[in-house]
# Entry
Amino acid sequence: MLKTTLDQELADEYGVKGLGPCPMLKAGQVFYADYAKPQGLCDEAWKAIYQYVFALAHSAGEGLFYYGDWIKTPGVAICSCNDGLRPVIFKLEATNEDSVIDYTPVR
# Structure
């Protein structure tokens, strides 16, 4: 987790009184993920970033995303959740750990 933000102009116009940055996540938090949402991570944030997490966990981290015109560091993606008033910014980074399913899929 890099940071939580608040678009004060939009919050003033559309948000409830007293709206502040996301209360669920804090800068500096670290989560490890592959196939499933890590415990403690917001469901909506996971929906916004999971495709990048999956790609990084399965070899996309060996090169640059999007033809090298987005992030300069291989194995890294900078993404945000879908909250338009108070988005949370994530740094996703590939690791050297093997990707494994560590849960039982429900069918």
User: Anything to note?
Assistant: The mean pLDDT is 87. The first strand starts at residue 3 and ends at 4. The radius of gyration is 15 Å. Strands lie at 3-4, 76-80, 88-93.
